[in-house]
From TrEMBL:
GO-annotated biological processes: proteolysis
Family (UniProt): Belongs to the peptidase S1C family.
Any one GO MF annotation of this record: serine-type endopeptidase activity
Protein name, entry field: PDZ domain-containing protein
Domain PDZ: 250-323
Length: 350
């Protein structure tokens, strides 16, 4: 007998055996059980349906050791204390190896000096050097060298469902509180038909389902790649794009310089613009500040700004465009009563 014949016989035997089992269990044994003295056969009969169970297991892994991520991120997170008091004020983020630290203005209040506790437990006197005119960001400095530093990532790239980690207060050397959760609302989904923005305030943010109480204010929000995508403030996450431009400005000029434009507006995506009956997405002007660069450029309420310096506002909000700009001329393409206008605003510091 060759191998092929053996396989054929085995397959035939399998199906014959299965068929015989069904015939025996469903036809022959029930009939025998009706014969007088053969009722015990019922114990061999099963009335349950024949079910084939298929079990699928899906294992989900994000490929990240959270304990290692928290350990590394703890080295760039600091405690901030009131000077001369054992009073925890909040947290900060180390952004340069020689002691430049970001925190929230609500952490320092009106103080010009505080104390900073590094992750190794060492304490340093710190000076408040600058605050951001468009957000509640403050910059501190301490005298230090070779500190661990952070890298920023774009919060605008984070979709809902992305896991994030938030670090907070540390009460012992190399030990720090943390929470983890998910992005619930992206930067691009933070607008609505009723939310009025100011060109002089950073409002766009990400929503996360992570508790961010007082012990986390001033601390970093990190993506799973270990990069900072925001900082916790009292009322929102200040996204990394705004932190990066503040750092660039401070390193260049010793202060946080932001261009003044001077409007209130609705940020309309393509879908929101369609709801409003507008042909294009953009920034719909609600009000213009008197004497502002916007007023001097000729902007009026109900003007729709659709383009800035050749860049359409269909994929990038006015806030993000202004965040990337410096002072000087800014060309606007505006739709007013179905007519397209070209205007130029000269951005200045307020």
């Amino acid at each position: 007998m060759n191998r092929k014949q053996l396989i054929i016989i085995t397959v035939i035997a399998f199906f014959v055996g299965a068929a015989g089992s069904i015939i025996l269990g469903r036809l022959i044994l029930p009939s025998l059980a009706t014969v007088r003295g053969m009722s015990w056969v019922n114990r061999l009969v099963s009335n349950a349906p024949i079910v084939v169970n298929r079990r699928e297991e899906v294992q989900f892994t994000e490929g990240v050791d959270l304990s290692d991520l928290v350990k590394r991120a703890s080295n760039i997170t600091v405690n901030i204390y009131a000077k001369g008091e054992a009073n925890f004020l909040g947290n900060g983020i180390v952004v340069t190896s020689d002691g430049l630290i970001f925190t929230a203005t609500e952490v320092i209040g009106s103080r010009s000096e505080v104390r900073v506790g590094l992750n190794d437990g060492s304490l340093h006197d710190a000076l408040v050097h600058a605050t951001d005119p468009k957000s509640n960001l403050a910059i501190l400095t301490i005298e230090a060298n070779n500190l661990s530093t952070t890298q920023f990532d774009n919060a605008a790239n984070l979709p809902p469902g992305q896991r994030v980690v938030v670090l907070g207060q540390g009460n012992a050397e190399f030990v720090r509180s943390f929470n983890t959760g998910f992005v619930t609302s992206s930067v691009s989904n933070s607008s609505s038909l009723t939310q009025v923005y100011s060109s002089e305030t950073f409002t766009q943010t990400i929503g996360i389902n992570v508790p961010t109480g007082r012990e986390f204010v001033g601390g970093p929000v990190l993506a799973l790649n270990g990069r900072v995508i925001g900082m916790v403030t009292a009322d929102r996450i200040l996204i990394a794009e705004n932190l990066q431009t503040a750092l660039n400005s401070y390193l260049k000029s010793g202060k946080i310089s932001r261009p003044y434009f001077g409007i209130s507006y609705l940020n309309l995506s393509a879908s929101l613009a369609e709801v409003k009956g507008l042909a294009k997405p953009g920034a719909l002007v609600v009000a213009v500040n008197r004497g502002s660069p916007a007023e001097k450029a000729g902007l009026r309420p109900n003007d729709l700004i659709v383009e800035i310096d050749g860049q359409g506002l269909d994929r990038m909000s006015l806030e993000r465009v202004l965040n990337q700009r410096g002072l000087g001329a800014m060309k606007l393409k505006v739709i007013r009563a179905d007519q397209q206008l070209d205007l130029t605003a000269i951005l200045t510091e307020k």
